[in-house]
Every structure is written in structure tokens, then in C-alpha cells.
Design a protein that fits this description.
The protein is an all-alpha fold. The chain has a domain at about 70-200: Tetracycline Repressor, domain 2. The chain contains 9 helices and no strands. It has helices spanning about 15-35, 40-50, 55-60, 65-85, 90-100, 105-125, 125-150, 160-180, 185-200. α2 (about 40-50) crosses α3, α5 runs antiparallel to α9 (about 185-200) and α8 (about 160-180) packs antiparallel against α9. The longest helix is centred in the last third of the chain and has 25 residues, at about 125-150.
């Protein structure tokens, strides 16, 4: 005997849990960009996302757990922007494409930049978050060092130090752009000058 579907009642809507967690992470990033992370609570995130505090606690048991997921979201977005860059083939171009993503050159990257500064301050007293930041930084440093090594340029004599210098430079430039000390064009020109030092053959 066949049963008509409409006799079974409405089909429950499937919940995309990753999408919902990402929604909450987005809310966290927006709140953190304006309030800083030390003052952010699960209640603030719930209000920003338009959901109940109970829902936030359903997906994230602790604030630190939510912070680490937010880092994953930002990293995924940076990777997606890199994947959309058709010119990032040569070693120098690949490194430049990565580092440019860390500069606050548009609204999205400015928000990510403000949150990055807040994350570093927050992680100083949060071992779990600090460990994740170290892991992400080590991964970027290794990726840059590998490209310097492949290029066989002067920086390849010590790729790790070249990578550390470039990454530290961009993090400092990002703070200067966010603070209005330099404009984005100046930051890009400074970055390109240091990339030349690392990648231009003798």
C-alpha cells in the first residue's frame, strides 16, 4: 500500500550545523572588531546573530571554543581568496598573494585585521587560543619559506628568516594601516620592496 507524502505532514527542515556555526562565528568577528575580544561574551554574540544564548551554547561550550572556530573561518576565507587568484603561480607571486590577504585593503580584510589584533591580545592569557595562533603562524611561515627556497634567490640562503621577516613586516604594516599611520598604497609599496630583497636574483 502506497502512502501519499502529504499525509505524513511537513518534512522537517534539515539544519546545516556548519552553516549555523559559521553564522555565529561571523557575529563574533563583528562584535570583536568593535568591542575587542576581552569584552565579548556568548550573550553579545547571540544578540549580534539574532539568536538565543542557549543556541550559542549548544554549538560552543566555551568562548575559547568559539574563538578557535572563528580562526578557522577566517583562514578558510583567506584560502578561498587565494584560490581565486589566477596569477599566483611563480614563488614570488604566491607569497605576495598570501601576504596581501593579511593587509586591510578592503572592508572584509579591515574587519579581519582588527579581529587579528584582538586575537593576539586575547590569546596572551588563553593557552588553547594561543596554541592555535602559533600553529597558523607556523604554517604560513613554512609556506613562505618553501617558496623562497624554490625561487633560489638571495633569501633562499636562509628561507626561514626571510619568511619570518616578511610575515612580521606584513603584520606590522596591517596595524599601521588600521591606525591610519600609512595608507594602503604605501603599505603595498613597502611590501613589494621587501619582496624584491627576498626574491630578486643577484
Amino acid at each position: 500500500m502506497r502512502v501519499q507524502c502529504d499525509r505524513l505532514g511537513p518534512v522537517p527542515k534539515l539544519v546545516d550545523h556548519h552553516e549555523r556555526r559559521t553564522l555565529l562565528a561571523d557575529a563574533l568577528l563583528r562584535v570583536a572588531a568593535t568591542r575587542g575580544l576581552m569584552d565579548v561574551s556568548l550573550r553579545h554574540v547571540a544578540a549580534e546573530a539574532g539568536v538565543t544564548a542557549g543556541m550559542v551554547q549548544h554549538y560552543f561550550r566555551t568562548k575559547d571554543e568559539m574563538m578557535v572556530f572563528a580562526l578557522d573561518v577566517v583562514a578558510a576565507r583567506v584560502q578561498a581568496r587565494l584560490d581565486d587568484d589566477p596569477e599566483a603561480d611563480a614563488p614570488r607571486a604566491r607569497v605576495r598573494a598570501l601576504l596581501v590577504q593579511l593587509l586591510p585593503l578592503d572592508d572584509d580584510r579591515a574587519l579581519e585585521g582588527r579581529v587579528a589584533v584582538a586575537f593576539h591580545a586575547y590569546a596572551a592569557a588563553r593557552p588553547a587560543v594561543a596554541a592555535r595562533l602559533r600553529e597558523d603562524t607556523a604554517g604560513m611561515r613554512a609556506a613562505i619559506a618553501e617558496q623562497v627556497r624554490r625561487a633560489g634567490a638571495p633569501g633562499a640562503l636562509d628561507p626561514e628568516r626571510a619568511a619570518t621577516g616578511l610575515l612580521s613586516l606584513v603584520e606590522g604594516l596591517a596595524i599601521h594601516v588600521l591606525g591610519g599611520h600609512v595608507d594602503p598604497d604605501h603599505a603595498l609599496a613597502t611590501l613589494d620592496g621587501h619582496l624584491d630583497l627576498a626574491f630578486t636574483p643577484v
